[in-house]
Design a protein that fits this description.
There is one protein chain. Strand 3 (50-54), helix 3 and strand 4 form a beta-alpha-beta unit. The chain folds into 3 domains: 2-134, 3-Layer(aba) Sandwich (Rossmann fold); 144-321, Rossmann fold (3-Layer(aba) Sandwich); 327-465, Helicase, Ruva Protein, domain 3 (Orthogonal Bundle). It is globular and about 65 Å long. The chain has helices at residues 13-25, 36-45, 63-73, 88-96, 109-139, 144-151, 157-169, 186-196, 214-222, 239-242, 258-270, 296-301, 307-313, 330-345, 353-361, 367-380, 390-393, 414-432, 437-444, 448-457, and strands at 5-9, 29-33, 50-54, 78-83, 101-104, 176-180, 204-208, 247-251, 272-273, 282-283, 287-292, 316-320, 350-351, 386-387. Strands 2-1-3-4-5 form a 5-stranded parallel beta sheet, sandwiched between helices. With 466 residues, the chain is α/β, with parallel strands linked by helices. It starts with a strand and ends in a 9-residue tail after the last helix.
Length: 466
């Protein structure tokens, strides 16, 4: 089926043939290309679930440019980078640019099959989510408000006041700046403003400015013309253009470089922009909502954020206080996440008395995100329909309780000490989850890629096979 098509890009004929035979044997439709140019031609007419691409090819299009172009053309395709040099730096760069995974040559058949299988699953999930969003748009019903009513908890006086302010702000076209610590729910409030606005049937585009590399951000926001830089094989519209007269949410606005601050200021002042490499001025009627966890006034004093841009953004400001300052929201938030995860897991669950007391009296510097992580881990390890407090107490690293005795004449191998601690906790988590890697990742709050890397680095054995 088309959704299970795979594209193999490698300049070595033997490698292309090997992967084609292997993947076709597993039931996939496989195309191949010997260089980036031919790969991009295939991408014009075909939608691929997974793209396996060699990162180091002698053609004009290098790995970075090819990866960027694939991500621009087919955002839901899962790109797996293949490298012969086993470069950790190279692999990390690929992941940062949007690759789903990477594999180093030489690799074994089982590894490739496992990675492709997981990427196919992720692609299908992404396609399903996309179709669901399209159905909502086609129905032209304002279901966003109903969904948001389930996500926004406003039991505390502070949050009730914030929602009142947001509801008053929503019908206007004014720029809004939302501030507050990480994990307090700034994007949820931004979506609430959009849902309550007269633009609620128009596009909504959230952009994390801190997650996009500096050299790509201008193109992502304003688009680029064909041939404007290496790898720009066709004209691309940026977020300011595709958002039209909808809402553009720029998260982590405090991470913008000075150069990007100047460009954004110009757009806000003149209400038009030009694509990278272009000369035509394109008008914009987009409503801008920005958010940051940084103190922009302090950034201005340090010369790291432009004063004129700050006042352009801060027409209307909403400050979301940390969760520890609005205690009435903690337990309701936990209950909301419990309902959500219980539905996903197909379990009937409730919190134990000790767990409820923990949410009422505990400290949560990680804010809403921390509550969500705690509940998710609790659901994984729940027994007899009960989420107990004990499930995470052993998962935390009690560094302050570790006995430390230092001799000034003794040389300490800190890296080895930390490695030993890391190995101990990963091994214990694997045992507790019966070596289920997904559950282990949830318990330790790390990604599956990170877990695989640490297991290999620390030489952690599966003791079930001993």
């Amino acid at each position: 089926m088309e959704r299970n098509k795979i594209l193999v890009i490698d300049d070595e004929l033997s490698m292309r043939q090997f992967l084609e035979i292997l993947l076709k044997k597993d039931g996939y439709d496989v195309d191949s290309a010997e260089n980036g140019k031919k790969a991009l031609e295939k991408l014009k007419n075909t939608k691929y679930s997974v793209v396996l691409m060699d990162y180091n090819m002698p053609e004009a299009i290098d790995g970075i440019d090819l990866l960027n172009e694939i991500r621009h053309r087919s955002q839901r395709s899962q790109v797996v980078v293949i490298t012969a040099y086993a470069s950790t730096e190279q692999a990390i760069k690929a992941i940062e640019l949007g690759a789903a995974d990477y594999v180093s040559k030489p690799f074994n058949v089982a590894e490739i099959r496992d990675i492709v299988s997981k990427c196919i699953a992720r692609y299908q999930e992404s396609e399903d989510r996309y179709r669901e969003k399209q159905i909502v748009v086609e129905k032209k019903t304002v279901t966003n408000e109903e969904k948001l009513s389930e996500e926004i908890i406003a039991e505390s006086p502070q949050m009730k006041k914030i929602l009142d302010i947001a509801a008053q702000i929503a019908p206007t076209d004014s720029t809004v700046l939302i501030t507050g610590d990480s994990g307090t729910g700034k994007e949820v409030i931004a979506r609430f403003i959009h849902a309550k606005s007269t633009r609620n049937r128009k596009p909504w585009y959230p952009v994390n400015c801190g997650a996009i590399p500096e050299n790509l951000l201008e193109s992502e926001l304003f688009g680029h013309e064909k041939g404007s830089f290496t790898g720009a094989y066709q004209t691309k519209k940026g977020y300011f253009e595709v958002a039209g007269d909808g809402t553009l949410f720029l998260d982590e606005i405090g991470e913008l470089s000075e150069n990007m601050q100047v460009k954004l200021l110009r757009v806000l002042q003149e209400r038009n922009f030009t694509r990278v490499g272009g000369t035509e001025k394109i008008s914009t009627d987009v409503r801008l909502i920005a958010a940051t966890n940084r103190n922009l006034k302090e950034q201005m004093q340090k010369g790291k954020f432009r004063e004129d841009l700050y006042f352009r953004l801060n027409v209307l400001e909403i400050y979301i206080p940390p969760l520890n300052d609005r205690r009435d929201d903690v337990l309701p938030l936990a209950n909301m996440f419990l309902r959500q995860f219980a539905v996903k897991s197909g379990k009937q669950l409730k919190f134990s008395t000790e767990m409820i007391e923990f949410f009422r009296s505990g400290s949560f510097p990680g804010n809403v995100r921390e509550i969500k992580n705690i509940v998710e881990r609790g659901v994984v390890f729940a027994k007899d329909g009960l989420v107990e407090r004990t499930f995470f107490e052993n998962a935390d690293t009690p560094v302050e309780k570790m006995p430390v005795s230092l001799d000034l004449n003794e040389k300490i191998d800190l890296d080895q000490i930390l490695a030993d601690i890391e190995k101990k906790y990963i091994t214990e988590a694997l045992k507790k989850t019966n070596y289920n890697r997904h559950d282990t990742c949830v318990m330790l709050n790390i990604t599956e890629r990170s877990l695989r890397y640490r297991i290999s680095k620390l030489n952690i054995k599966d003791e079930r096979n001993d």
